[in-house]
Design goal:
The complex is a heterotetramer, with two copies of chain A (277 residues) and two copies of chain B (314 residues). Chain A has 277 residues and is of the alpha/beta class. Chain A folds into two domains: 98 residues, Translation factors (Elongation Factor Tu (Ef-tu), domain 3, Beta Barrel), CATH 2.40.30; 116 residues, 3-Layer(aba) Sandwich (Rossmann fold). Chain A is built from six helices and 16 strands. In chain A, the strands form three sheets. In chain A, strands 4-3-7-1-2-6-5 form a seven-stranded antiparallel beta sheet. In chain A, strands 11-10-9-8-12-13-16 form a seven-stranded mixed beta sheet, with helices on both faces. In chain A, helix 5 runs parallel beside helix 6. The longest helix of chain A is centred in the C-terminal third of the chain and has 13 residues. By secondary structure, chain B is of the alpha/beta class. Chain B has nine helices and 16 strands. In chain B, a hairpin with a 2-residue loop joins strand 5 and strand 6. In chain B, helix 4 packs parallel to helix 5. Chain B starts with 7 loop residues before the first strand and ends in a 24-residue tail after the last helix. Classes of the chains: A alpha/beta (277), B alpha/beta (314). Chains in contact: A-B, A-D, B-C, C-D. Chains B and C meet through helix 3, strand 11, strand 13, strand 14 and helix 6 of B and helix 3, strand 11, strand 13, strand 14 and helix 6 of C. Bound molecules: flavin-adenine dinucleotide (2 copies), flavin mononucleotide (2 copies) and FE2/S2 (inorganic) cluster (FES) (2 copies). The site of one flavin-adenine dinucleotide (FAD) has 25 residues of chain A, from strand 4, strand 6 and helix 2.
């Protein structure tokens, strides 16, 4: 049962001109959140945009005793609300509805988990990394960006014993090129018998490539899609994505706020997925 | 709670309070049972249903505009049979008062839907969507033509003893004439307004922002037009009116009641704040207390308009 | 400036750029000569004029609404003769291109106004206000009736050789049919939209917020509906279109042009920012440069709409 | 010629729960402003109210050399924009269009000037007081409010050699009752031959009473009206007030942003003035 929290902004860590991390006091959301879930955010001031915006829950914030006290959001500034999240100073407030959506499945050993993140698609993987670690599931983060200055929190993952593989398009950090490069090679090297789950979040093209690579090598994937969402609760039917239950069945438009945002990669009818407007 | 009488009568249908969830903005109701006690709402107008399942439009289906939003969902839906089998039992369990919003491509389809739903336990009333701007056939074609509107209402009237509530489109020159046509055809009440046909273009790509090109405008932006239309219909008909369009606060609820609505529907506000319902109810109750009214119906249609004022056109 | 060709043709009338001040939102133009170089505007549609002086409505005449405003000025005005004597000379001195917005209570009055203004030096075109929601007689009664619209336009057409531009009301079921009627009656262009008939109620006093009860809604709130109507008219007629409704930024100007407007009018934005004009012109020029277009007319009506898309109703 | 200044907020002095004074950097407006003129203010942020709101210019701010650097506004919180002005912290910005409107006439000796202020109607009198002082015109401020805590800047006027007469409805400061009480008595005492101009700003009822008292004793008044204003520039015709050129002539609705906000009190058709909504 989601709550709507009038959350105090605890911190605002500006990582670059475009990215920041906002810390929010929201114990009830933090306590209930599962990896890959999201919140619907709005500003409560006269004239603020009407509709809420979806954000993955990035970190679970905890007090000294480890009790969940809040969440953080990894925000990329692209418009009005993401701009406001970038500007929001500690002491301000943001309305946060959540946690919402179907989470990632958290594999257990001996299965391995690979997380593939592009840009702000890193957001759902902090909580997933912690959950995997709790299960002692060996985990790797494949993380790509345009250049070194677009990669954040790498040491955060390393400190949590996540193996990290990096790629940048300009070669300024990690391998030069797309993150699907190393992913493809590593997939080819992994013994067929070794169980693996791949989780991906990032630009649609990247997720599609990951899902196809994985399928080609018979691996399961989960992708976290980012359609426009009007309500986050199943009320408006704006967030639909085309999925098919079997390879030959026709696709159906299902609500990604309820049945997603995490979907099995092979179920997504990538050809029919509308380009983000 | 207080001693204020919040009940309202919509013809044969009595609601415990005048706050109704608007069709298409509250799923089939069951989606919201986690966040709203469905039995506390006056009623729920569920998402528009056809006889058959419908896939709806390709996304993008919504876009935000100044103080409003456009939608072109295209009436994606599970069809009336699955609704009766899969959703109605849960709604009954939650003690929700269910108004089923129905949509057809022919007069016969409306009548057929009405017959099917008359036999289903737990349907309180039928709202006839003759005003959806988002589908090619049916819907608004009836809503923009007085004869068509009259025919649909009459046919449904004959097919059911459930309360019949046609939902009017604002995309017409004279909405009051449609309210009159509905009244004459035997409607128990009318609801208005549905969304305004609209369009938004992405200037960078020079493509429509909605896959369907056109969409319906809802939200606070339309409220002043919707209030005017409710007022006009109040002058034109005796049957009850459910007013809507951009209601976000209890003050907005009162504005519609005072303009002449017997009950109100709340749509877009659910997306902004799913916990809005108790706030609206408390705000309305507080308003009535503050102004010394014992019942909601005491303020319905009480806007003080100088004698001379009337619609200028037509 | 740049090498971009900003001129647009509205029939016989060529404007140096597509940015026109909307009637009633820029006084008689002269009021703004301190803050805007009037010669830099494509044209100025001056405040609506009757044959006679008119006192207008008792205040309050405006009220703000979500992303919009209602007005019920009631066409307070100095009448056509005083306009010609007292304002036109100054407008000519400022080298303003003047479109006179005229309003009558009968067809003959429109024709008479047209004759009088045809003889006045410095009138570039006539805009026929057959769409004002704020007066009891004339105005919108012509605008909501196809026959009436046709008659007014024909009569004025016969009375003048000035460009004739009827201004259409959005308060109709099918605005495109009015554009067609205007075209058939010999209009050189159409302008749209005028304001949406609306109402706001003060819930504390339960009185209308405007002395006139009803008012016209303008501003960003109506933009998506106005864009849709411009697009519909573009599909229906060959004559040029002046589009308007909620334009605040250069991006909004482009949205209307791309939807099918040959020029745009800017109303409410003048109140928000009287210095908006150079910003709009620079923004438009910048847009055209950025997208590699040499002329405004290259983007008019270029919205990419899939073949199937068309108005669903009627 | 008015300017639209993107004015930096220099200070925000909260006088009470309802009143504050905002200092704004706006040299061009400050240099041009005359007593009784106003500015049209808006906030430039997404979703801010569409229409500007009118505010009298309260003080002219000056640097060490006495050069005008900005203006202040005396603000009373009643709604959205006045609420924003109350909340605005130094460092923020407000868009200010002005100076606008017809100013008070500044009398010269031997004429005396009496200023009658009710509540936030004090706003236009700081600039008028300074202008009168420059002319060495003897000046009195009649200033009324509900109670002592509604009266501000009294010593500001006293420091500028303005005689101050106070009244409060609850009697907590100055005379008990309405400010028109002492005004009426003093009017009766003033020799008929002594020239006098009365300026009034405040609630409509107060201004009307002042205009009638003055007229009864054959004194000229100027009142500063506060209708709703859409543009401030004569463009919208929203701000009209009924005035008549002679006692017997019918009233005409004239734009108070151009022909006012200051009007000769005897010209206002008080009976026809719409109540503020
Ligand atoms: C489940 C989910 C989780 C998300 N998690 C995050 C996250 O953790 N961090 C983050 O920064 N963003 C995340 N997003 C994307 C984020 O919701 C959008 O960037 C945001 O809605 C844009 O709002 P805005 O007001 O800033 O942009 P607007 O001003 O509304 O629009 C600016 C531009 O962004 C585009 N846009 C609007 N919505 C979306 C969208 N949903 N996806 C892509 N482009 C869009 C618009 O078309 C427009 O071009 C997530 C989206 C989903 C669906
Ligand atoms: C020439 C002039 C000078 C003024 N000078 C000052 C000043 O120096 N300091 C100051 O605090 N105020 C002044 N006012 C009044 C001020 O403009 C209004 O209080 C303000 O517009 C309210 O805006 P809002 O957004 O806060 O209120 P809104 O949220 O728009 O409305 C809140 C309430 O205030 C009422 N209201 C709106 N406009 C006015 C108005 N013009 N007059 C009275 N009530 C109104 C509304 O009807 C509503 O009940 C002046 C007005 C004029 C015309
Ligand atoms: C996303 C969305 C879907 C809608 N679907 C329907 C529908 O299926 N049937 C219907 O009669 N109205 C539908 N409507 C219209 C609403 O019920 C309501 O008439 C309109 O939105 C105005 O109210 P509001 O401003 O409170 O949203 C829909 C509106 C929205 C925003
Ligand atoms: C205060 C006001 C007065 C208006 N007066 C007239 C008028 O006299 N004649 C006319 O044709 N339109 C008049 N209009 C309508 C505008 O010209 C324009 O059609 C409408 O406001 C939509 O454009 P906007 O949203 O840019 O304001 C008026 C609008 C406003 C806000
Ligand atoms: S976002 Fe509204 S149904 Fe999914
Ligand atoms: S405020 Fe617009 S004309 Fe005076």
């Amino acid at each position: 049962m989601p709550a709507d929290v009038d959350a105090l902004v605890l911190s605002n860590d500006r990582l670059s001109e475009a990215y920041n991390v906002v810390g929010l006091a929201a114990p009830s959301i933090a306590a209930a959140a599962q990896p890959g879930q999201f919140v619907m955010v709005r500003e409560d001031r006269p004239g603020a945009p009407l509709l809420r915006r979806p954000f993955s829950i990035f970190e679970i914030l905890r007090d000294d005793q480890g009790r969940p006290t809040g969440i953080s959001l990894l925000n990329k500034r692209v418009g009005v609300v993401t701009g406001a999240l970038y500007a929001r100073e500690p002491g301000g407030r943001l309305q946060c509805l959540g946690p919402l959506g179907r989470p990632f499945s958290v594999g257990t050993p001996p299965a391995e988990a690979w997380m593939v993140a592009g840009g702000v698609g890193l957001a759902p993987f902090a909580t997933l990394a912690e959950a995997l670690r709790e299960q002692r599931t060996p985990a790797t983060l494949y993380y790509g960006g345009r250049s070194a200055s677009d990669l954040f929190h790498v040491d955060w993952f390393e400190r949590r014993d996540i193996r990290v593989v990096l790629a940048t398009e300009d070669g300024s950090r990690g391998e030069a090129g797309l993150i699907t490069g190393p992913l493809e090679r590593h997939l080819a090297l992994l013994p067929a018998a070794a169980p693996l789950m791949i989780h991906a979040c990032g630009p649609t093209g990247m997720m599609r490539a990951v899902a196809q690579l994985a399928q080609a090598s018979g691996r399961a994937t989960e992708v976290s899609l980012e359609p426009v969402m009007g309500c986050g609760l199943g009320g408006c039917y704006s967030c639909v994505v085309p999925v098919r239950s079997g390879p030959a069945t026709p696709s159906q438009l299902v609500r990604s706020c309820l049945q997603g945002p995490v979907f099995p990669g092979h179920q997504v009818a990538w050809n029919e997925l509308a380009p983000a407007v | 709670m207080s001693s204020i009488n919040l009940t309202v009568n919509l013809g044969q249908l009595q609601l415990k309070n005048p706050l109704v969830a608007a069709s298409g903005c509250f799923g089939y109701g069951t989606e919201y049972s986690d966040v709203v006690d469905l039995s506390t709402l006056g009623a729920i107008a569920v998402k528009g249903l056809f006889l058959q399942e419908r896939p709806g439009h390709v996304p993008p289906r919504i876009v935000e505009t100044p103080s409003g939003m456009l939608n072109a969902i295209g009436l994606q839906g599970i069809g009336v049979r699955r609704f009766i089998d899969e959703r109605l039992p849960a709604l009954r369990k939650h003690r929700a008062v269910v108004i089923v919003n129905i949509c057809g491509t022919t007069v016969d389809e409306y009548a057929e839907l009405a017959r099917i739903l008359s036999d289903a336990p737990g349907v309180a009333a039928l709202e006839l969507n003759i005003s959806c701007p988002n589908i090619k056939e049916g819907g608004i074609t009836f809503g923009c033509d007085l004869r068509g509107a009259h025919d649909v209402v009459s046919a449904v009237r004959r097919a059911t003893s459930l309360p019949v509530i046609p939902k009017l489109t604002p995309n017409v020159t004279d909405v009051a004439s449609f309210a009159r046509a509905a009244e004459e055809a035997g409607a128990d009440a009318v609801s208005l307004v549905n969304t305004f046909l609209a369009m938004a273009i992405d200037v960078e790509t020079r493509r429509p922002r909605l896959s369907n090109v056109f969409g319906g405008l809802s939200g606070p932006a339309i409220r002043p037009i919707a209030v005017r239309m409710v007022y006009e219909c109040r002058q034109a008909v005796r049957i009850p009116i459910m007013g809507m369009g951009g209601i976000m606060t209890a003050e907005d609820v009162v504005e519609f009641l005072v303009a002449g609505a017997d009950a109100v529907q709340v749509g877009t506000a659910n997306f902004v704040d799913p916990f809005v319902w108790p706030k609206l109810l408390d705000g309305l109750t507080g308003y009535l207390e503050r102004h010394g009214h014992g019942a909601v119906r005491d303020i319905v249609g009480t806007v003080a308009v100088p004698g001379a004022a009337q619609r200028i056109s037509s």
